[in-house]
Specification:
Distance between the termini: 17 Å
Strand order of the largest sheet: 1-2-5
Shape: globular
Order of helices and strands: EEEEHHHHHHEHHHHHHHHH
Number of helices: 15
Number of strands: 5
Radius of gyration: 19 Å
Largest sheet: 3 strands, antiparallel
Structural class: mainly alpha
Mean pLDDT: 76
């Protein structure tokens, strides 16, 4: 087996690039976690926490989710004439991912009805890295090294620590169930999109048409909530649409990263967004205490370092 940064790839062949002091295969080179990809994924984590805070703070979250989807769709429609169509074999992945994203929006919206951002978000994101890494191991043969797995576990445990007070809410089981359902949809679309984007000759073509497909979400929400949409102020409309564009950029960069690094590793790094979300919840919404967040942040930071060294 050929080893690369943080994971093992099976069936590596055709060593034709020089990396460090040795040649590695073309396939192995494709999935090395380089420092630029590492920084990009951490940047997407910050953006992801920011748009979730926008949704949490919205007066009408359902309509805001519609604006988020609009923020995905509009830039994609503008870019579409300049990018190639996705190959036919990627179309089923785009369709399946769109359906899963419907479930994601539904469960995330339901989760925020019962719990704070700093409680729901960590659970929804905390279980995802292990789910994604396990699914990638079984279906894609992506195997992290022991150091990589250690980093992934540290991140997940740190994230879940932030959400431990969810049982103090009025509806603890329902809150946890909605958050875990959200986590399941995140893991599902992470794998589907991770495979689909790798099948496209250009990542941008898959990303653009995936966001265009979210137009169905926009039509459904606005048809269902037409009067509530019209009641929005210009400020609320602008914030929701801006949050959607921020979300689109964050996910587009994450999908690009999945063409260059293991899906499980990218997903684990993205979940560091809970630290940013916890800080937003603490200072913006006045949720929770500093001590627990600091301890969890240290644990997540340790996981990030381990992944960087793996």
């Amino acid at each position: 087996m050929a080893r690369s940064h943080g994971f093992t790839l099976r069936r590596a062949r055709n060593a034709d690039r020089f990396y460090g002091r040795r040649f590695i295969s073309a396939r192995e080179w494709q999935f090395c976690m380089t420092y630029d990809i590492f920084i990009i994924v951490l940047f997407t984590a910050m953006m992801h926490a920011a748009w979730n805070a926008i949704v949490k703070g919205a007066a009408d979250r359902t309509v805001t989710f519609g604006l988020v989807a609009t923020g995905h769709m509009l830039p994609a429609l503008m870019i579409a004439p300049f990018v190639p169509l996705p190959p036919p074999e990627t179309v089923p992945y785009i369709i399946i991912s769109t359906i899963i994203h419907w479930g994601y929006y539904f469960f995330l919206n339901a989760s925020y009805r019962f719990g704070d951002l700093s409680l729901v978000y960590p659970i929804a994101r905390g279980a995802t890295p292990l789910l994604v890494a396990g699914m990638a191991l079984v279906w894609l043969g992506e195997t992290l090294t022991p150091l990589g797995w250690s980093g992934l576990v540290c991140i997940s445990v740190g994230v879940l620590i932030l959400g431990r007070h969810c049982f103090d809410t009025d509806k603890p089981l329902l809150t946890v169930a909605m958050a875990l359902a959200t986590s399941g949809t995140i893991a599902a679309y992470s794998i589907v999109d991770g495979v689909g984007v790798r099948m496209a000759p250009a990542a941008i073509s898959y990303i653009v048409w995936l966001f265009i497909a979210e137009g169905l979400v926009v039509l459904f929400i606005f048809a269902l909530c037409h009067d509530r949409f019209r009641a929005l102020t210009r400020k609320q409309f602008g914030i929701g649409l801006g949050g959607g564009m921020l979300s689109a950029l964050a996910y587009a960069l994450a999908l690009y990263a999945k063409t260059k690094a293991p899906i499980g590793m990218v997903s684990a790094l993205r979940e560091t967004s809970v630290i940013f979300a916890a800080m937003i919840g603490l200072f913006w919404f006045g949720e929770g205490s500093v001590r627990a967040r600091l301890g969890a942040a240290i644990l997540v930071f340790t996981g990030i370092v381990l992944l960087a060294l793996a």
